[in-house]
Input
Amino acid sequence: MGQTITLTVNGVRRSVEVEDGERLIDVLRERLGLTGTKRGCDDGSCGACVVVVDGKAERSCLFLAAKADGREVRTIEGMADGRALHPVQEAMIEAGAVQCGYCIPGIVMELDALFSRQPDAPDEAIVEALARHLCRCTGYEAILEGARLARRKLAERRPA
Ligand code: FES
Ligand code: FES
Output
């Protein structure tokens, strides 16, 4: 049967026809052309598809598109400000955490949600957030380093 949903994606209101049971990852990638959100396992276990919905990190491969109606979605495409990367993106690159890069959009969005909620998130909270993501390349050390660097960069930008 399907329905039309209206959601805000990276600050832009979009109306999209969705099928019953269609998931948010398919709306983002196939209908809106936002392919920065990656599909890995498609069953909720790898974290590659994480986006931020109303401030919360969500696995878009499990998230029903119909549930996104009226909500605010942020994807990796919404992170940079023009040509200037977001501090979390910059930090990942500087820490050498981006190897094949497949896991990185999901991790950046997970950290964006974490630091928006808890700007001084302790290492334990960062480790807990990263544990929801599979990276086949880095062994996680560089990603953890990148997350710590992101926390510092974000703190430096906060008004005193
Ligand atoms: S593709 Fe969604 S968790 Fe792996
Ligand atoms: S950098 Fe390749 S999967 Fe993480």
